Amino acid sequence: MTSVDGTDVRAAGFVPPPYPYARLDGLLAIASEHEGGAVDMSIGTPIDPPPPEVTAAFSRSGAERGYPSSPGSPDLRRAASRWMARRFDIAVDPDSIAACIGTKEFVGTLPQWLRLRSPDRDTILYPAISYPTYEMGAILAGCRAVPVPLDAAGRLLLSGIAPDDAGRALALWVNSPGNPTGVLDDLGAAAAWGRANGVPVFSDECYVEFTWSGPGRSILQHGTEGVVALHSLSKRSNLAGGRIGFYAGDADLVRYLLEVRKHVGMMVPGPSQAVGIVALDDDEHVALQRERYAARLARMADILGVWTGQQITGPAGGFYLWFAVGDAWTWAERLAREGGAVVSPGEFYGPVAADHIRVAVVQPDDRIELVAQRLGV
Ligand SMILES: Cc1ncc(COP(=O)(O)O)c(C=O)c1O
What is the pTM of this model? Predict the structure, then answer.
């Protein structure tokens, strides 16, 4: 069993590696020297307010008194089903939908539950450039974390998966729109590969409401057999603090996961479940948020494009700018020094991305203009 830096963690005893964003403290200190402070565009944490009628549900539900349902209340699961019907034109049985406490914990714990179910398998496949928790979840479960190479368009190169790895795989992760790349993957191809190889496919679709190129897509539009889609209200509804997510799809997989998760007390707090229902039934606030991110992506691409003299194009989905800069740490330090902005070096998302930078446009417009002013553009 190997850790991120290749050491045998059983021999050494597991030492958690530094949390990626803790490695940005130096850049934060440099950016903070600017009058007006640092403009933090490193972590993709939402900053805009959810609608008041959504947040009001936190205090109105009375659901804080008793233990909440671990798979989620019937009303929450039905609201998730209604949302998927509106958004993707698909009918998903509420019994094949279950809640998670935000999606990070689901990503981080899934491998151990799958490994208990299929002890003869030990491998998690995940995109070579991706959200770090896919790899970390595998490591925490004592599994092999095997990155899947990407093609020239940034999609999973499914033909690049070695037959031995496919035969040992507990799951294939796909993430569309992708963090950090913004790429829209071929979800039909991922589902077909999983079925052909007997590998469950987990599709992290937490940025789907911010799809800029065509309609939002779900892997469940290609059937539910052997596939599970993962959704979050963190980004869609600016409710990252409420910790509300859900997974949906293959009836057997969802049933197994919700049963095992009950035993460890995985429960979205009742007031958060109540908020989730109101948020899922409302699309207007999402349309407004879409406009905000679209405008910020365009403005930030423009600012950094003028500053660097390079053309920076927006993503096909999500709220990150992702572009090559050469030595990412040096580039990020210069931006912190000159613009007072903090961004993430590509190596956080995979060693093959060390020459890239990720910029999360999660700052209000006036803070983005402050960066422009500092950079003199
Ligand atoms: C690709 C991806 N998946 C999952 C998450 C986790 O989000 P949450 O736990 O808030 O649902 C994030 C958060 O940034 C993400 O980028």
Answer: 0.96
Structure tokens at 344: 């993430």
Kindly state the tokens that stand for 208.
Answer: 């789907």
Dihedral angle of Cα 158, 252, 115, 178, to the nearest 10 degrees: 40
Measured CA to CA, the distance from residue 19 to residue 5 in angstroms comes to 13
pLDDT band at 8 (very low <50, low <70, confident <90, very high): low
The rounded Å distance from CA 277 to ligand 1 centre is: 19
Q: Which residues line ligand 1 (CB under 6 A)?
A: 44, 102-104, 107, 131, 175, 179, 204, 206, 232, 234, 240, 245
How many beta carbons lie within 10 A of that of residue 302, not counting itself? 14
Q: Counting Cβ atoms within 10 Å, is residue 189 exposed (0-12), middle (13-18) or buried (19+)?
A: middle
The pLDDT assigned to 5 comes to 54
Question: Which stretches of the chain are assigned E, i.e. beta strand?
Answer: 39-40, 97-100, 123-127, 144-148, 169-175, 201-204, 227-232, 245-249, 320-324, 341-342, 344-345, 356-360
